Amino acid sequence: MVALAVCLVLVATVVMASLPISHLGTAANDATAVAAISASPSPSESPSDSPSPSPQASPSAPATTQPRVGTPIPGSAFLAYTVRAGDTLSRIANAFGLSITTLYWANSINVPDPQLVKIGQIMKIPPMDGLVIATQAGATVESVADKYGIDTQQLIDANSLSDTALVAGELLLVPGADTPPLPVKQASVPVTNWLGKLIWPAYKHYRITQVFGCTGWYGEPRWGKCRHFHDGLDIGGPTGVPVFAAAAGTVIYAGWRKRGTDGAAGGIVVWISHGGGTLYTTYNHLSGVTVKIGQKVSAGQRVGSIGATGAAVGSHLHFEVWVCYPWSGGNISCARNPLLYTSPKRAAPPPAPAPTS
Predict the structure, then answer these.
(1) Domain locations in the chain?
(2) CATH code, residues 71-175
(3) Closest by alpha carbon to 179, among 93, 306, 270?
C-alpha cells in the first residue's frame, strides 16, 4: 500500500509539470508595469542613489532692451523721440542709423552741449543723414536746392513734401550736405578773486562823499529795500585831478553817455573790462578822458580827470565796480561795493609825465 501511494504521487508530479503556466496578472498590474518601465532611466542617463530634486521653475530670460522708436510728426518727415534713462547722443544716433553730427545739428538749439541730453527731452530725428536747416523767409524749394547743389526732387523726397511752399522757420533736411563738426566745450577760464586788489582810482584824494548802498539823496533810484540807492562810491576832488585804471584791462567805452538809462547820467565816462567777463569798473562825471575805446590799459594808468559832468552835484569821481557788463538788463543787480575791492591804502602811483613834443 505504501509503495502504491508513492507511485501515485510521482505520477501526479509529472503530469503537473507538463501543463502550460497560466499568468494571473490583472490589467492594473500591467499598467503598473508599463509605468515602471517608463519611469526607469534611459540608457543615456546615469542612475543615482540620491533623491531626485523637487521640480523648480526655470529661470526667466533677461529682459530685452526696449527698442528706440520715434513718433511721426504730422506733416513732416521727421520723427519725435523722447530721451530716456541711459541715452546719449551717440546711442540715439546709432539706434536710428544716423551720424552723431546729423542728429546734433538737427537739435542744437535744445542740446547746446553734445555731451548732455536730458531724460524726457524731445529730439527731432531726421529721416537720413544730412544737414538740417531752418528755412528763411522767402526761401523756396528751388532756392534751397540750388544753394546746396542738389536736385529739387531729391529735396522734396527726403522731406516728404506734399506742398512745395515753404514756411519760414520750417525744418528741412538737405540730404548728403556736409554737417559741421561737434562744438568743442571750451575750458573754463579761472576767475580772479579781485577782492581787495584794485588800485584807488583818484590821485591823492581819499575823501568819500557818498558810500555804496542806501542813501537819503532824492536823486538816486529805488532799489530793493532802499528808497534811494547809490550804486558806486563818490570820491571828492577838484576838477582836473587824475583818475587811474583800478586794474589792467581794455577800455570798452570812453566819452559821453548820450542815450538810454544805462549810466547816461554819468556824463563823461570810461568803462573798463578786466577780462573774463567777471569784473568791470566805470569812472563817471569826468571832465575829460585820456584813453579811447579798445585801448589796453595797465593798472594805475591815467584814464581821465575828475569833473562834474552829467547828473553830478559838485566835482567828484563816481567809481563803480561790476561783476557783469555794466547796466546789463538796465538794472544794478551786478553792482558791488567798491570798498570791498579797493581802499585809500591802495593808492595809485604818481601819474606819468605828459609826453613832450
Answers:
(1) 71-175, 208-346
(2) 3.10.350.10
(3) 93
Which ranges in the chain belong to alpha helices (H)?
Answer: 2-18, 27-39, 89-95, 100-106, 141-148, 152-158
The closest alpha carbon to 105, from 186, 188, 159, 177, belongs to: 177
DSSP assignment of 222-276:
PBTTBSSEE-SEEEE--TT-EEE-SSSEEEEEEEE--SSSSSGGG-EEEEEE-ST
Residue entry with cell 544753394: 147
We find that the CATH architecture of domain 208-346 is Distorted Sandwich (2.70)
SS3 percent helix, strand, coil of the chain, rounded to 5, is: 20, 20, 60
**pLDDT score for 40:** 37
Q: How many CA atoms lie within 13 A of 68 on its CB side?
A: 22
With CA atoms as reference, report the closest residue to 161 among 148, 145, 147, 149. 145
* CB hemisphere CA count around 268 (13 angstroms): 19
The pLDDT of residue 357:
44
* Terminal CA-CA length for the chain: 179
Closest CA to 291 of 302, 281, 283: 302
Query: What pLDDT sits at residue 11?
Result: 42
- Residues 64, 86: Cα–Cα separation, whole Å: 15
Q: Alpha-carbon distance 46 to 138, whole Å?
A: 84
CA dist 126 and 158 (Å) reads 9
Largest CA distance in the chain: 179
The Cβ of residue 137 has, within 10 Å, a number of other Cβ atoms equal to 8
CA 240 to chain centroid? 50
Low-confidence stretches of the chain (pLDDT < 50) are: 1-64, 259-261, 357
